[in-house]
Design a protein that fits this description.
single chain; about 220 residues; six-stranded parallel beta sheet; 10 helices; 6 strands
Length: about 220
C-alpha cells in the first residue's frame, strides 16, 4: 500500500464539531408541518436524505426552503467554530511530504469557508455538499476526490470522525482512518470500516508512515 493522497472530512476531523443537528432537524420538520406535510417523518437515512424523500412528496418549494434552514444552522455554527489547533500544521506538513490533499464534506461551502477561508490554497480538491449529487455515505464524493487528485482509490486515505466517512471510503476502495475527535468512539468507526483509529488527526502522518514501513 502506497498512500499518496489524504481525503479529509471537515467537521469533527479538521474543525470543531458544534452543529446542533437535532435543532436543525426540528427546524426542517416544523417547516414541513407548516407546509402541510401530514405523513410520518422518514426514519431511514440522515437529514439531507430525509429532506429529499419528503421533497419528492411535496415539491421543490419545500426542498429549497429546507436547505436554506439547514444552511442557516451550518453558517451560524461556523461563525462560532474554528479549526483544531493542529490542523494548519498537519496540512502544511502533509503537503511538504508530497501528499495530495482533499476535503469532502456534507456541510455547505459557505460554512466551511467561514471557518477555513484559505481551504482552496491547501487542498487540490474541495468537495462540499454542493458538488456532491450523492454525498457520503455514498462513495461518489470520495471517488470524485480521487479523480481530481489523479489517484486510484487505493492510493488515498479517507480520514473522518463519522461512520459515513468510513462507509464512503470503504465503498470507494480507500484506506479508512477513523478519528474520535468528533462525537463518536472507536467502536462505531470500526464497525463502519475504519482500518486505523486515532484520537485525532494530529498524529496521522506519523501513523501512516509507521504502517507503510512495517509492511513488506
Amino acid at each position: 500500500m502506497d498512500i499518496k493522497g489524504l481525503i479529509f472530512d471537515f467537521d469533527g476531523t479538521l474543525a470543531h464539531l458544534n452543529i446542533d443537528f437535532e435543532a436543525m432537524r426540528q427546524d426542517v420538520c416544523s417547516l414541513a408541518r407548516e407546509m402541510g406535510y401530514l405523513q410520518a417523518w422518514p426514519q431511514s437515512g440522515f437529514l439531507l436524505e430525509q429532506v429529499e424523500l419528503v421533497a419528492g412528496r411535496m415539491g421543490d418549494g419545500f426542498h429549497d426552503r429546507a436547505h436554506r434552514l439547514i444552511q442557516e444552522r451550518e453558517v451560524r455554527a461556523a461563525r462560532a467554530g474554528g479549526l483544531f489547533p493542529f490542523t494548519m500544521k498537519l496540512l502544511r506538513q502533509a503537503a511538504q511530504r508530497g501528499y495530495k490533499l482533499s476535503v469532502v464534506s456534507r456541510n455547505c461551502r459557505v460554512a466551511i469557508k467561514t471557518v477555513f477561508p484559505g481551504i482552496d490554497e491547501y487542498c487540490q480538491a474541495f468537495l462540499p455538499r454542493e458538488e456532491a449529487p450523492r454525498p457520503k455515505p455514498h462513495p461518489g464524493q470520495v471517488q470524485d476526490a480521487c479523480v481530481r487528485l489523479g489517484l486510484e482509490p487505493d492510493q488515498a486515505a479517507m480520514v473522518g470522525d463519522h461512520p459515513t466517512d468510513m462507509m464512503a471510503g470503504k465503498a470507494a476502495g480507500c484506506f479508512c482512518v477513523g478519528v474520535t475527535s468528533g462525537r463518536l468512539g472507536a467502536a462505531e468507526l470500526e464497525e463502519a470500516g475504519a482500518q486505523m483509529i486515532l484520537s485525532d488527526a494530529s498524529g496521522l502522518l506519523a501513523a501512516l508512515e509507521r504502517m507503510q514501513k512495517s509492511r513488506p
